[in-house]
Design goal:
alpha/beta, 5 helices, 5 strands, 41% helix
């Protein structure tokens, strides 16, 4: 059984996942983070099916979502989240290395709350993740929380 999750991290790159988790732990926001490694696992977690069937935890406060992933890409995950009445209010932040205009346009057309291109340099990456965590978990208010 998964405990309360505030941040769902959907990231197939182990390095990017480790840096994200480290950055959030550094500002004490990583203790309620859950990491999944592909879009299929993310959808199972969000819609409480497969390995997560019976999970009674509330929706996360924010989903940090990569685009380019195996099985199901991030844009499809985003589309399904935002089309479902039970999940559409969950804030979704795309965190990607993609600078493709079509990814940006599709993300916003599907209802993304923010689109962030991952900085390449470690210090900038850590700072961007910390700022995202502080905003989405501390400053922002979501329904039902």
């Amino acid at each position: 059984m998964v405990k309360e999750v505030e941040i769902l991290l959907v990231e197939d790159s182990e390095i990017d996942a480790e840096l994200t988790i480290w950055s959030l732990n550094k500002i004490n926001l990583g203790n309620k983070l859950f990491h999944v490694k592909d879009g299929s696992e993310a959808l199972d977690f969000i819609f409480k099916r497969g390995d997560f069937e019976g999970n009674k935890s509330a929706n996360p406060k924010v989903i940090l979502l990569d685009i380019k992933m195996p099985k199901v890409d991030g844009l499809e995950v985003l589309r399904q989240i935002k089309e479902n009445e039970l999940t559409r209010t969950i804030p979704v932040v795309i965190m990607t290395s993609s600078r493709e205009e079509q990814d940006l346009i599709k993300s916003y057309s599907y209802g993304v709350n923010s689109f962030v291109v991952k900085p390449v340099e470690f210090g900038n990456f850590a700072k961007a993740v910390s700022e995202l965590g502080l905003y989405w978990l501390i400053t922002n208010h979501v329904p039902g929380k």
